[in-house]
Amino acid sequence: MENKKHIIIFSHGFGVRKDSRGFFTYISTSIPEAEFVFFDYNIIDEENKTITLSPISEQVEKLKGVIKEIQESNRGAIIDLICHSQGTIVAALACPEGIRKTILLAPVFNTDITESILNRYVSHSKAIVNPNGVSVLPSSDGYNRLVSREFIRELSKIKPFDSYNTFCEKTELIIIEAMHDELLAKVDMNKLNPKVILLSVDGDHNFKEEARINLVKTLRYYLL
Fold first, then answer.
1. Helix (H, G, I), strand (E, B) or coil at 139
2. What's this model's pTM, rounded to 2 decimal places?
3. CA angle 99, 105, 197 (to 5 degrees)
4. What's the maximum distance between 2 C-alpha atoms anywhere in the chain?
């Protein structure tokens, strides 16, 4: 690593908080050589235990704003991104300048939210699935995720491969697939730009337990 200030910005996934499941917190404490930036995309109501998902376009603008603020207040610093799940496509759509490396963890390639997300909750007794209004999706951390029709509409129009292939022209792009991802189906990666570095790491969608330790080793290799 060059002798410069090193800042890593996190971009979190669908319907969670910036520190949910301790995932990003674990990564940050395992790479003490860098400074980390956490922020939330969504509106969190602690009293009512709800997380209202911001439309994708608003999330993109939020990320752009965070990156711009960091860049302006840290001239000359090395800035990287670590993105997880839905946060990967948000970063690709933002396609910011001046990012040295971007690592996409368990990235999204299928944005058909009706099939890939909402349908998982159809049989849940406490879920309200309403593609034409607001869906209420319970989560294991005790929060209800409120998903609007606008969110669904915007996400369904995204073409992930196109977005990632464009983004890799602006940053060194590293994709790390979870070999046992229980949430996202495997896809044909032949559509990816050859510039993209594609890796597979043992683990589930959130790289829990031993997989998290091995993931950090890979992150340290590419970021430091």
1. coil
2. 0.95
3. 65
4. 54
Backbone φ and ψ for 162, nearest 5 degrees, come out as -60, -40
DSSP structural state of residue 53: P
Distances (CA, A) of 188 to 41, 161, 201: 29, 10, 17
The model's pLDDT over 95-104, given as tens digits with 9 standing for 90+, comes to 999 999 999 9
Tens-place pLDDT, residues 140-194:
889 999 999 999 999 989 999 999 999 999 999 999 999 999 988 889 999 999 9
Amino acid at position 75, single letter: R
Pairing of strands 35-37, 43-45: unpaired
Q: Which two tokens stand for residue 184?
A: 């996202």
User: For the chain, which domains are there?
Assistant: 6-45+55-111+158-223 (3.40.50.1820)
